[in-house]
Amino acid sequence: MAVSRRTVTVLFADVADSTPLGERLDPETLRLVMSRWFERMSEVLERHGGTVEKFIGDAVMAVFGIPDLHEDDALRAVRAAAELRGALAGLNDELARELDVHIGIRVGVNSGEVVAGDGTGGQMLVTGDPVNVAKRLEEAARTGEILLGEGTRRLVENAALLEPRDELTVKGKSGPVLAWNLLGVIEGAPAYARRLDAPLVGRADELLVLYEAFAEAVAERTCRLVTVVGPAGIGKSRLATELVHSVRGRARTVSGRCLPYGEGITFWPLVQIVGALGSDTGIRELLADTDDGELVAERVLGAVGPTQTAGPSGELFWAVRRLLEEVAREQPLVVVVEDIHWAAPTLLDLLEYLAGWTHDASVLLLCLSRPDLLEERQGWLTTPNITGIVLAPLTDEEADALLDEIGQEWPLDAEARARIKEAAEGNPLYVEQMAAMLAEGGPADSIPPSIHALLAARLDRLPADERAVLERAAVAGKEFVRSAVLRLSDDIEREDVDARLLSLARKDLLAANPGREDAYRFRHALIRDAAYAGIPKELRAQLHEGFADWAMRTTAGRAGELDEIVGYHYEQAFRYREELGPLDERARKLADRSGELLGQAGERAFTRHDMPAAVNLLARAITLLRDESAIRLQALPQLGSALMKTGDFTRADKVLGEALAGAAAAGDKKLELRTLIEREFFRTFTNPESSTEEIVRIAEMAIPLLEELHDELGLAKAWWLRSEADVIAGRWAARAEALERALEHAKRASDAREISTIIALLAQALEYGPTPVPEAIRRCEELRASVREDAEVRAAIASTLAGLQAMQGNFDEARVLAEEGRVVYEELGLRYMRAARSIASGSVELLAGDPAAAVRELRWGYDELEKMGERGTRSTLAAFLAQALVADGRYDDAIEFSNISQEMATEADVVTQAVWRSARGAALAETGDLSEGERLAREAVTLANGTDFVDLQAGTLIGLAGVLASGGRTEESTALAEQARVIYERKGNIAAAERLSEGARAR
Known about the structure:
The chain is α/β, with parallel strands linked by helices. Helices cover 64% and strands 10% of the residues. 51% of the residues are buried.
């Protein structure tokens, strides 16, 4: 057996309190006692499939999963541990009689990933932390106690009676270890629970085949054998359960299961079937009036009894047939035999015999098997009298239906459902186990232990040469080309690689990829994951590097196209070498190469506005590249910007600080200025106390320096920053002028991303500034058409157009546009933009006369910004939320949010200062404080008049008019409302103007 990584279960058993025994007994007698102890314990462990690796003092260590993996290794180990107690009781009886000696036992069992060797040269078979934990569990156990680690518990909990022990502090572990006391093992229970009582999803066609086979057996009084074939978890048992339920009352049903290991298990299903029919007494009564009944009973009972004296197989086959015929004489009989892929050849011969020779009796034999059976009996499904059903994965619709059912027990959000459905690929067991793991708080991106055990055991049965090819394919990816596997298989002949790929496809582990004759894919992503998990890390590093080298050569001339993929493989090669250590210069060069490629891929993601991808790629590149790397220094500010857009302000602050320090240390003035500008942008979001004077100071300091450096892109950013001071002051015409300067420089720099972003900001200036609405819509549509390929900017302009269309009273169109923007922001992972733009969608609802909807939208945006730690936009959003709450009649809440806005907003933030004052003034007036309400409302009007924010000017006038109206000052109120109406009409805000006109007519 070659060195490999595998999940095994390790068992340590030790004699408890052996020191006093050594004091009492002569060394020769003690040696005899311990030899008998080792012998009895080893017998039990080996009978359950354990490999007894060694004796350590008084302890015995066994490994389950060496040399061969089994899906139930953990359960085998736990069964063996439970049986050790019984074996020791028998030994103690003997020792008490012979030597007046009694010994106790402590057992520890743990499962986990280890490195497995071949045991040559006296080396340990397995090494790894699970071995150490198993030993520590054994040491912590009380006399007679069996302690299981958490890894084992997860693999056997359905078949074991467990009680939790207090968390253990054990030597060599930094944190506490969870332990479970084994009280007993439930006989016949599987290691993991199956939902056989859940509604059957899909399988209508397959169920019809079973119904028809049963009907034929009944109508023709004959035997039909149907074999349902499919991988573990595909739904074979659930289908059989559905048939059994459907024929209840019309047929007698019995079942048996083949066992994967044990002594005398050839006819184990027959043992269970005979037990269901009444065992010895019941069988003899059934056959009492039958010719040769006594002989039939003797043959059958002899095969299933403890001594197993069945006689020749031909006589047994005849006897079993006669028994089934007699049982089915009065009522049809359905016999379910599960897991016949584990059946001994003799049992398979018996099933074939029954299918061909049973007559004058209605019998349906329903056999369930994994595809492994067809490797041993290739003609099984083509045998006369045998019908085959091959279960395919569930369709997407069927998987959704199953998730709906599971969701009643374990609620799943949309993201979790999508993740489970993608990973499970239509296997019901995988769906169930993944849902259960998530419900327990398990990691979303790992394979549930039960599924990993199934797949690892299946792959472990492959011939070594096929396993080697499969592992190389796993490194190449879920989909791969033959030439990549050939490159990674230098030690294997080309013809052999082709033959092994075809063999793996026949075994349903791989499949040809349509469209390319040399392309393959893994049948299931989890098969790929399990194959990859078995590769030692040193070999993984070699294979990843080899794949990356191959990809670089084969994609020459397509520079950049596969940077992310190739960079990933170099990254993995480096990371595994880093884990194994120590790092040499060759490993460092792998990191350099990977960081450069991932940085380039991250820059492209940033350019196309895919910010989650940009964050992922740039962050990885930065951790790989050396501190002095120029590529790293360039990537840092870009990562900071991407983090801002995704709403991760804490990380953005740290990254931008590092970027600024790095640029200064490197003496890169251009980069330092750009980073300084980027950090000031950041501070406008997180530090509202950052004054407009500081924004202007930094921008005006940077502009001449950038001009000297001929940095057009830097100048575009500097003018954009300068325009932010105008936004805060509510000077939208000045904002547009500064942005036009920024756009001019961005065009000179030929930076498409910067151009499109500035265009989106210009569109916003058209909405809020003095430009009439019809003209603003026309200009925005033109701008939108100019950025057809930029989804983020189109979304921003859609949000702007939503506000403009609402001003014209086109509310349905406005809502469609607002939703378009929301969807794009969510798809791109732009959390900040999605939340910030709730101001626009909230204003649509206010204009449409639905303040409650406006409150919902604005409150959602506020909460999201609060989670991000953002303060600048949130202060403004809180003010607009207060305004919407006033419109909704929720005056106390409006006052609360106006207070929040006041606390966060800077004095220079004229817009926010005006809006919160207007909102609080209106709320106070409605609650009786007319004097303070009027004072605040007048301050709001004064502030708004210092801006060219048209809607703000009109809105504050309306707020003051409302306050005056509450005090009975109707004439003044009417005059102010008329001023506001004129402003709205000048802007083209028809919806707001008409509402004021309607109010005037009503008065």
